[in-house]
Amino acid sequence: MRDIASGQHLPNLRPDGKPLHPSWLPRQRRGKTPQMIGRYPDYDVLSTIETWDEATRKVVLARLEEPGPLRFFDAAAEPTLRAFCDTVLAQDGEPRIPVAEFVDAKLADGRLDGFQYDDMPDDRDTWRLVLSGLDEAARDAGAESFADAEAKTREAIVGRFADGQLYGGSWEKLNVSRAWSVVMRGALSAFYSHPWSWNEIGFGGPAYPRGFMRLGGVGVREPYETPGATSEDPVETVEKEDIDG
């Protein structure tokens, strides 16, 4: 494991401005996290399941069930969807949170976010156009599809997407920057709705009807919480580096 206290895993302190791959984190020892790594290796949110009410348990445990086949995206789009979700969320090993299935189910059931940008199509059409555009960008880079492209190529395409710098073909039908916002909102909300991601970030999970006992702010843990692999405050580390540098 790397020297966490040095803060060199923080993007603002790295020459390329990018975070380290999550593999720098310690192996998970209790519960599950994506790829079995995380900052809270001895924490398992499911250890508090008896403090949740029945309705909450039912909703959360359903997210742990084996996902079914995709219903919204067709077989041609599925590999690109999975490759995109894995790339933007750095899920390149098992166990993975089934983000693609969560996104697909939300779109198939029409459970949209209740708003739409006035210069954008329906979110369902946005997702389809984005996946088509990713394949087009990959072909321009010499790959057969986004899913078939090498990791560095996929990351470069995603970087251009994030910067709103993809043009032509399907992208001409979209405000590219807004399209990034739409699909990332979907991917991130799916990822962070899953208990494995809660373990990864040390999130306490549902607080109803249990509530909170400790109201002392940062550094004051609930009885069921565990220390992280490092106790440094990332904000303080970056601010100190800015002053010293």
TrEMBL record:
InterPro entries: Gluconate_2DH_su3. It comes from Mycobacterium kyorinense. This is Gluconate 2-dehydrogenase subunit 3 family protein. Residues 1-33, 223-245 are annotated as: Disordered. Residues 233-245 have a biased composition (Acidic residues).
